[in-house]
Structure formats: C-alpha cells, structure tokens
Amino acid sequence: MSLISEGAEYNGALAEPSMASVGDYIALLKPRVMSLVVFTALVGLAIAPGSIHPVTAFTALLCITVGAGASGALNMWFDADIDALMTRTAKRPVPAGNVKPGEALAFGLTLSAFSVGVLGLLVNILAAAILAFTIFFYAVVYTMWLKRSTPQNIVIGGAAGAFPPMIGWAAVTGSLTFEPILLFLIIFFWTPPHFWALAIYRMDDFKRAGVPMLPVVRGEATTRLQILLYTLVLVPLGVLPWPLGYTSALYGAVSAVMGLGMLILAVQVYRERLPSDQACRHLFAFSILYLFLLFAVLMIDRGWGGLIARLTA
C-alpha cells in the first residue's frame, strides 16, 4: 500500500478540503516539542567555534524550526489512526477532523523540502544533510516502523530528537567534532527515562492504540528498571562536558545537582516509594527541567557571549 493511499483511508477522500484554522496548522507542527528542539539547536550553534553572519544564523534556526515542524506534521498524518484512540492525542487536528490527512501530508512534505533546500543553499550541505536525515529518521524510521513494531521504539527513535545540536554546530563550522556528538549522546540517553515515565502513567492509552511501548509489552517492573539504568548512564554523561574542559565549574555544579535530582526520582520510580503514577509524573516533569537547565547553563557558560561576539563582528 502506498503512503498516499494509506493516508487516504483515514476519514475519507483527500479531495474534499477541510476548514482548518491557522491554529490547526500550528498544532500540526508540535510546537511544544519543536521549542526544545530549536533551543538545543541554538545551543549547538552558539557554542560552535568560528564565525557566522547574523542572517545565516537566523536562516539556520528558521530551517531547523521548519524541519522540526515538518517532522511533527508527517508524524500526525501517519499516526492519525492511533492518535484517535488515545486520550492524550485524540484532539490533534487530523483525528479531530479539522485537517484532512492529505493536507497534513502535503504540509509536512512541503515544509521538509523547504527547510532542507534552503539550509543547503544558504548555510551548508552538511547541516542540510543532517536535517534531512533527522526528518527521515523521525517520520519514516520511528513513526512508520519502530513505533508500531518494537518496545525499543523510543530508544532508537529518540535519536531523531538528539540531532539538532549537531545541526546547529554544523551550520557554523561545516564539520562535526566530539563536542556536538556528546550533546547528541546526552539527549539520546535522556529520552528513554523521560518518555517511559510518561508511558507508564499513560499505559492504558498505548494499550488501547496497540502501540508496543515497553510497559505494555514487558510490564511496569521492567520499564522502571530500564528507566533507572538509562538514568545511571545519563547522569555522568550530563556532567562529562566539564571534566573534558568544554565548560567551567558552573556547568559542572549545575549538571551534578540536576543529575542527582534525576537519579533520586529514577530510584523512586524503580522502588515505588511513591505511587507509580505520581513518581513517574514527577520524573517526567523534572526531566524536562533537567535538559533545559543543562543546555541553558551550557549556553551561558560557553556560548552566549561568544555567539553575540560572532554575530556583531
């Protein structure tokens, strides 16, 4: 079955136009997810060595933003059938009937082509290639394959959300070194405990939609153990930029304190010191703050002053 025909099966024919609002199309972009993606890309751009013209920097961030939105639109197009079955996602534009599947597909493909093409033409080929691979990985490898076929979906698929700092770095330098790869690894190992915490307290949603999330397939006990194990890897990775000399003691202190908070909450989830639902909600919320603060302090410590200097030079 082709992608077009598969999308067409949901909610009738593609030819009939919808009455979608601007807000519906903004929702297709997954703005909350996009904001974290753009922020981590900005940090990658800010800490990269070398100079970049202000217009080029703005263009790079715009393309990364549009590319992230394109991934969200393609995800919502393909996942409309399971989104309709889950409380958390049932009001998204496609399952709610506000945007036709074909329109969401066309919107996502158009944004994808625009973001990659403009980034390649006006910034550099490496940044555009990584962005193109990121969109492909999220929309095809994760959404169309992994999400519905393996309980390790979020582990492998999480790589898509870890690429933005590398894109930002490549936009400035046209190359990659270990430092942006380390940022990739931090986000990569952050994703499973972050999302599995959500998956535990939203498990009924995933069961109803037939999505083989880890707690659905292997049970809560296994998932809680995996959350702890990934957190044990994440915490030293989060601190690592400091002993490697990439940052000052400010980042080292913040990353250590926040890492300790992540570890305490992961242990609570594992040992069920609190009701499972409550412990998982705490970890999910704190994990967002953890990643934001790590990258915010990295920006202040390493990148912000340097970025301003490069943009005004």
Which key features would you list for this structure?
313 residues; mainly alpha; disordered N terminus; single chain; 16 helices; flat; Tetracycline Repressor, domain 2
Question: Explain this structure to me?
Answer:
There is one protein chain. The protein has one domain (23-312): Tetracycline Repressor, domain 2. 77% of the residues lie in helices and 0% in strands. It has 16 helices and no strands. Helix 3 runs parallel beside helix 10 and helix 3 (31-47) crosses helix 16 (276-312). The chain is flat and about 50 Å long.
Mean pLDDT: 89
Output the number of helix runs.
Answer: 16
Rough outline: flat
User: Radius of gyration from the CA trace?
Assistant: 20 Å
